């Protein structure tokens, strides 16, 4: 059975190109991708994760308001009973910030992994496979069945 | 249903009053007093005049920070150290969403903590006095740049606040910038903005309007961008706008970019009424940048070089820190000076490249087809035609996040790096044109020994940030090292 | 009197032994053992092969620091972070003056104090072992770059030390680099260097030789540079050199630069014997740089753009810190990556500019005239002809500090920014050619409403560092701001 | 009477373009310029200053060895009995040094003024006029008589 991930851009951010590439890459790697598109609210992420029984929630943010947009996000997930791996990636701070600090900020907000904009999809896919204990064989099966 | 007709003055006034009641700073707007303020401004702060009389491309950066004093300092720096000819004030994202309360919170936060969590200047919150303090403190014309679908209050306040140029439009600030705004509503909102600009214009204060040419910034075929520019231009002209700057974002192929800028100018002149003064603006590469300042300087310079050949009226520069986040003022000024240097070194040279005429002819043919389809869809009415053409996919923008566009068009580069259309969807282009694109892309596929697919598109999206123009398999490289 | 004839082996050996006795590290040279060392090097360290088989322009920076470990680290950095294809080792100024004792002092100073007061790598002092430690530690081909009129010992040691490429020549490392060396002597000294390279070549170790194309780096008319390149190529070929890279320094006008690089290649092939493999190298702007890294990046990028169009085999890059002093390794790598980005973005595009053929034809005509005059002056002998032509001013280099050149030629830019000749002195160019130059310069003088004078030349010398190509009065500016 | 300055590039430095521009500018400003050219030794400077009774000695150095090349220069001048104003300019240190430090180094070596490479000739001419107490009138006379 294919593993399901929910993907979207949070807040009022409209940068769509990154998730378009991610959707394609995660699909090609055998995942079922529920793409919420841009400008998705915390609730939309949570509801989609429930509806589709997602194992991972992938949040994208490019425009520099990620920190505000993610305040309380993990509470909302918990309220909906979502127990998925959560990743966030993109340009997470305003300006030329230091990434290690950004990582800490978002880990403190509850994200399991934090990626910068230099991350290629492959890296995130590899990490998710590790986190979901997906072996290559299972992955390959997944690729075939989707 | 909405039509391309001038808003009657009573209606203008009524909406204006309603709007201004929506946020405290709105109350202070007084049109007559605003006219007097504009009239008091010296010649070198009159945006339209400065732009329209320049004899070489003027440079303008993007820049906006939340606090007034910081914005003053930033713009002075970009004018002084960056040698910018024209200045911007980029608005924050909350304001773009009309969330003035959140913007207020962000602004107060910034004032207290000294760190900026807003990504721009919340002009509505600063109000007329704040805007004028900025205009008064900086010695060059300043434009409002934003990305706001409903920019009516922003326009009312910034026009009264002394700004004489305003970016955006109903399509270009909808389709690339939002998901859920429908086109009919954004057209209506921008008719108001344009009518307001028209009202100032009639009183001798020519507010310059600049539709946002780059759209999604990502491999947008020139004819699509130009069509949107002409449509927004027509809508604006109806409302009385007389100074229009049509935009175009660099795709990175010099011949195509020069051809597109020439086509933009000639189609703008062809479609727009004579009483409108049409100028053009070239945006340095608007897609993903390399994560490396040195490489980014190469991208920026290719833009400068292209501008020197095409000679648009204005160039919007990028900074070497584009990849990372909002640039420091030093990096922003550096992007300006790098661009200036290469433009000034190349500008006086005669550089006539073969093939520009052919490419321009193709772009014009495509644009004519799209425009015709819009007119058809609207039975001659541009507003209706725009809505219906987008609805039908006859007009479309690649990578559009908006529900109002099909987003079915997929672009890819041909073997020479020019942006072609791989998937047309229902785009209103006839078979002849489609065949030209197909043939060019087939040649590339052959060169690369692979099929045309989304993989190719994705490779092209990443190519420039990965260090090349065309997304060849394995980076295109038989590199020697 | 000296002639263009191959040095007989006994003489080669005798000079070699004499020379090597001159400084302790010289003793260690053993030709047979050196051949074995070269044979042991992997393919990707063989300079000539790597350069000659590349399918796009290879990039090479300039770089040299006194201490071995620092030089290793520097080159590794430029190869890794700078993505350089070919590496340099720039020699210090004392070595260039054959002041090995002073270089030794500087080196020891550097080792003790940790601060560098030498401006390069004293390869003679490092000796064969030091050189080989460098060659072994770095994973790309490395060239010796210097500026030494008498480079015989340097060549003997660096060839034996494993370097397979050596810059310079009897004219190009004399005229721009020194005051008092006479040409007869430098030709004799470089015949030895070339003969040594030839001796290695005959044993299968093809040492690449690279005459220094930019000369004084300051507004050098292309035909003068090309003539010097061809002359040095001919002298080298006589001594058995089979891998020759002819150089040219950017003047900043794209059409003229592309034309010059094409002329360089075609004239190189025309004059040099078939058994010589001719490649070309383009030097990014070698004149005064702007005192601003951002602007310097624009200058560098114009060079990259030109290289993408002209496609030389190699490009020598500049760093954004060129104005100030020897660049940090980061800045040096940045110059490489900026160049790489713009080249790679432009390389796959077809950019055919009008007027290149005409300009190339003019350059070739001028070069033919100069070459013919050299042959005439030497009764067919290139060595004698070179000496006599310089003596007569029939061949001349602008801004030459050397007593061996008249330095009577004065260049200035025409209205398009191409470098023309304002004062010919006794330069061997016929009236037809002179008239072409005069007409071009007259047009510029007219545009500027002033007379042709040294003031114009001085303005042109400063123009690029002041931010433009042509030294117009009052900076050329009706700039809008 | 025209004021005489000696100009040259010291050491084994061959960068000639700067002094070519300086020679022209100082001449145009009314000075008599004795241009020694490049690669001039300390002694050559001193002897020329004596021979031509120069009021100023202008030393140029671009290639990064200025400090070594100027060691003991002012002793040599003194030995020859030269009592002229001394200036040095160009790229005076190897690498991306801080100019204030460079200035101190060369002032300590005895130079009256130290200029960086951004100095235009006008600036040096203005300084020399001040140092030699040349009024504009005298300067204008000088321009006429040369
Ligand atoms: C194209 C672009 C636009 C287009 C977007 C069109 C569209 N609808 O998509 C337009 C012009 C409309 C635009 C608008 C704006 N933009 Co913009 N934009 C860019 C730009 C140039 C490229 C983005 C892009 O498409 N990259 C290509 C894709 C493939 O890469 P990516 O988005 O980075 O995604 C990859 C990775 O980040 C990663 N990733 C992303 N998300 C996630 C999530 C997970 C879980 C993982 C694992 C990985 C991951 O994987 C992706 C695929 O490889 C970037 C700068 C840059 N990167 O060069 C600025 C940039 C993102 N924009 C910026 C800003 C500020 C804005 C505006 C606010 C501008 C303004 N002031 O007008 C508006 C915001 C509008 C809005 N409401 O969102 C800033 C953000 C600043 C910050 N964070 O500090 C940037 C960095 C530019 C800058 N230097 O100022 N922009
Ligand atoms: C052209 C050039 C060359 C040409 C010189 C041709 C010639 N014979 O003149 C060539 C290619 C031969 C060359 C060689 C070398 N060069 Co060189 N060269 C340059 C370059 C690019 C421009 C110099 C120039 O002509 N500028 C234009 C003139 C008009 O300006 P200027 O020389 O600065 O002079 C003005 C001012 O400085 C001032 N000024 C100068 N002297 C004085 C004196 C006084 C009293 C006053 C008031 C003012 C003043 O007024 C002048 C007129 O406006 C500079 C970098 C730059 N500036 O961009 C490097 C540079 C000077 N070179 C440098 C080096 C290292 C060398 C070499 C050692 C290179 C090498 N490693 O091969 C050799 C040295 C050879 C030798 N024996 O001298 C370095 C010096 C590094 C340092 N100081 O730390 C520089 C800075 C380049 C760099 N960034 O590495 N070079």
Automatic annotation (TrEMBL), chains B, C:
Residues engaged in binding L-glutamate: 62, 96, 145-146, 167, 173, 177
Pathway annotation from the record: Amino-acid degradation; L-glutamate degradation via mesaconate pathway; acetate and pyruvate from L-glutamate: step 1/4
Binding sites annotated in the UniProt record for adenosylcob(III)alamin: 64, 119, 176, 289, 318, 322
Catalytic activity: (2S,3S)-3-methyl-L-aspartate = L-glutamate
Pfam families: Met_asp_mut_E (PF06368)
Cofactor: adenosylcob(III)alamin
Enzyme class: isomerase
Gene3D superfamilies, sorted: 3.90.970.10, Methylmalonyl-CoA mutase (3.20.20.240)
Gene Ontology biological process terms from the UniProt entry: anaerobic L-glutamate catabolic process; L-glutamate catabolic process via L-citramalate
E.C. code: 5.4.99.1
Similarity-based family: Belongs to the methylaspartate mutase GlmE subunit family.
Subunit structure: Heterotetramer composed of 2 epsilon subunits (GlmE) and 2 sigma subunits (GlmS). GlmE exists as a homodimer and GlmS as a monomer.
HAMAP family xref list: Me_Asp_mutase_E (MF_01923)
Name used for this protein in its record: Glutamate mutase epsilon subunit
Organism per entry: Natronosalvus hydrolyticus
Phylogenetic lineage: Archaea, Methanobacteriati, Methanobacteriota, Stenosarchaea group, Halobacteria
